[in-house]
Design brief:
- The protein is α/β, with parallel strands linked by helices and about 325 residues long.
- It is built from 13 helices and eight strands.
- The chain has helices spanning about 15-30, 45-50, 60-65, 100-110, 125-135, 145-170, 175-180, 180-185, 195-205, 205-220, 240-250, 265-270, 280-300, and strands at about 5-10, 35-40, 75, 80-85, 115-120, 140-145, 220-230, 250-260.
- An eight-stranded mixed beta sheet has the order 3-4-2-5-1-6-7-8, with helices on both faces.
- Helix 1 (about 15-30) packs across helix 13 and helix 6 packs parallel to helix 11 (about 240-250).
Length: about 325
């Protein structure tokens, strides 16, 4: 079984790439063959957190047809079970891939020789990030235990749902315009347009599509990693956040890891050394190991449907 895990964050600066790189090391230490792929087009820097130099060809070579396979572009890391696929940050407009290029890239990612493939996505809600986060019904969201970061997480989830709507309703632009309020409201808007309201509206016009979308939402599980947690009290709002996601977005959120703040992380980043080699706190390393073990024990048994949006817009 091959597992593709998209890893995203609603905003930058929450430690997404740090978590991705070191989760890759932790999974590799458990004996899994792992590839981490930098899909942050325009801002690729995951190599820094793996202790590697940016002197290897990457995704740009494949997307510009200079390499016929991503497998030819993977490079070794400091752990024999962990390999790396360099991103693309030098070519302008690479983040604006058309649908056919996205499909081709996804097909090749699934062919990579690994048990687990971690996709380090761009921060925020650009179309490419939303597309690749939607490749699986289970994805990881990295956030910090603070209100702005968590609100951005919820906004990211709503954007991913709307992106799915673009796929399901690509031939009914009038209906998409009617449900535009779902996209443009804020999380704290009054009155609230919920996903249940949207499904009812869709059902009146396209009952089969509404049923498929309902099944999609029920199967979706977003697993959240809280990074830079200073004290347990920081997470006192979590039940409220879960309720907001459930009531407004019909989305299930699970807290999967809590990584504590550690001053040694900054030192590791300055010398571009993986945390597992820098002498960071045992508490932080334990959090990463526990996250890797949860993925090993539970994720392989969950539904991981691979696909990509087929709407014919070039975003």
């Amino acid at each position: 079984m091959k597992l593709i895990i998209p890893i995203a964050s609603g905003k930058g600066g929450v430690g997404k790439s740090v978590i991705t790189a070191n989760l890759g090391f932790s999974l590799a230490k458990l004996g899994h063959q792992v590839i981490v792929a930098d899909l942050d087009f325009g801002g690729a820097n995951l190599h820094n957190y793996l202790g590697l130099k940016n002197n290897n060809p990457g995704l740009g070579e494949f997307l510009r047809d200079r390499s016929d396979s991503l497998t030819n572009l993977i490079v070794p890391t400091l752990h024999p079970n962990l390999q790396f696929l360099l991103g693309e940050g030098a070519t302008p407009f690479m983040a604006n891939l058309n649908v056919m290029a996205r499909r081709r890239l996804l097909v090749e990612l699934y062919q990579l020789p690994a048990e687990i493939i971690l996709l380090d996505l761009s921060a925020g809600c650009n179309a490419l990030t939303l597309d690749f986060f939607n490749t699986s019904q289970t994805g990881l969201q990295i956030t910090r235990p603070e209100s702005p970061s968590v609100m951005n997480l919820l906004e990211f989830l709503r954007q991913t749902i709307y992106h799915r709507l673009l796929h399901y309703l690509s031939k009914d632009r009038n209906l998409l315009n009617q449900i535009g309020n779902f996209l443009f409201q804020t999380i704290n808007s009054v009155p609230v347009v919920t996903m249940r309201d949207v499904l009812q509206l869709i059902s009146a016009h396209h009952p089969k599509i509404a049923k498929r979308l309902q099944e999609d939402l029920e199967a979706r599980q977003v697993r959240v990693v809280f990074n830079q947690v200073e004290q347990q009290e920081d997470l006192g709002f979590w039940l409220q956040v879960q309720a907001l996601a459930r009531d407004q977005l019909s989305c299930s959120l699970e807290s999967w890891a809590q990584c504590p703040t550690d001053p040694s992380v900054s030192a590791a980043l300055k010398v571009q050394t993986p945390l597992v080699q820098q002498g960071v706190s045992e508490q932080l390393l334990c959090s990463l190991r526990q996250l890797a073990k949860r993925i090993q024990n539970y994720w392989f048994g969950s539904t991981s449907k691979i696909g990509i949006s087929t709407d014919h817009q070039d975003h």
